[in-house]
Amino acid sequence: MKILHLIQKPQLRGAEIFTSQLASHLNENGHQAILVSLYLGDADLPFEGKKINLNGVFQNRLLDVKAWLKLAKIIREEKPDVIQANAGDTLKYAVFSRLLFRWKQPIVFRNASIISSYIKTKLSKILYSFLFGHVDKIVSVSTVSALDFAALFPQYKKKITTIPVGIEHSFMNGLEEKANQGNGHSTYYGGPILVHIGGFTFEKNHVGLINIFERIVRERPTASLHLIGDGILRNDIEELARKKNLDKKICFHGYKNNVSQFIRNADVLLLPSLLEGLPGVILEAFVCKTPVVAYDTGGIKEIVISKHSGYLIKKGNEEEFAFAVLASLEKNTYNEMLIENAYRLVTSKYFNTQITKEFVSVYESIVSE
Fold it and tell me: How many CB atoms lie within 10 A of CB 72?
């Protein structure tokens, strides 16, 4: 089976990274995956197979006929069995190209977030209702995402299925070294290492993260915060850190390919997002046996289970979040139980090898129909 995966652009974002990993596993399993990006990007995605760029124009994404035509030509030449649209503008390009240039392959849309948070106006709802009418299957990343989609577009409820994100077995590498050195690299930095991974966008809530860290430092002055990612709000967050006199305790690392190293070396992973589908970094932290403190938003509660696998905090409660981070730093049997439960949860059902089989079942079902 041949699957053409559409992504926004080569960038180190969750949607593109997971799609690249999925495509790699499809190739390993005897299928053929092609990665087609709408726009130019400079990231080195983890995929060694065939990659094509449409050279689309972001500012012209609702009328990018040249890129739609190029996509149609690629589909006619490659003859894929399925087209999968993975977040961003990929659904628009897939549907408009199929309507205008009349190729027939089925379209799968991967719903990796809480769609009602993005579709708020009547006009956008009309547009996306039209687009989803031309989709054969909608794969939601979590039960919460699926329910949210069904509430907004009940007419497409029968098209929805749920497949979570997964992680690579390679994340198992290095766990022995972490066990030998203790929880994180605190001895190297003089205090606990707190890590956040995510682009500098509003939904990642870096402002709230800085406020939380400010509370933590009052109790643990030697703590350091490491921010992995980049984005349009980075300069604003750097300025906020300076104003709060926290700039010497906060490290802005930018985009990194080896995020697993940061997670392994951390004492706690912090995720105070205002909006999420089901973030893969939590699964990575679980398998690295790094404690997680997160806001209860989107599908997070399906993996960060309060009093079982992590600390789940009501969204917006910065004081409670900071308290939970401090509690997670303690060495006690309760935290050991959370870490072990989280590890077993991931290793039992969230590896990409298993997730790939679930996607293949979806592809086979729509092709047979």
Answer: 16
Query: Which helix (H) or strand (E) segment is 347 a member of?
Result: helix 333-349
CA neighbor of 37 nearest in space, from 16, 22, 64 = 16
Q: Mean of the pLDDT values across residues 288-302?
A: 95
Tokens of 318: 């910065």
3-state secondary structure of 82: strand
Query: Hunting for tokens 């991967």 — which residue is that?
Result: 110
pLDDT band at 124 (very low <50, low <70, confident <90, very high): very high
Q: Any idea what the Cα angle at residue 20 is, between residues 18 and 21, rounded to 5°? A: 65
Q: From CA 113, how far away is CA 275, in angstroms rounded? A: 8
**Chain centroid, CA 260 distance in Å:** 14
% pLDDT > 90, the chain: 86
- Percent of the chain scored above 70 by pLDDT? 95
DSSP state, residue 185? S
What's the confidence (pLDDT) of residue 184?
44
Structure tokens at 303: 């993996």
3-state secondary structure 276-343: CCCCHHHHHHHHCCCCEEEECCCCHHHCCCECCCEEEECCCCHHHHHHHHHHHCCCCHHHHHHHHHHH
Per-residue pLDDT band at 189 (split at 50, 70, 90): low
**Under 8 Å between Cβ of 284 and 266:** no
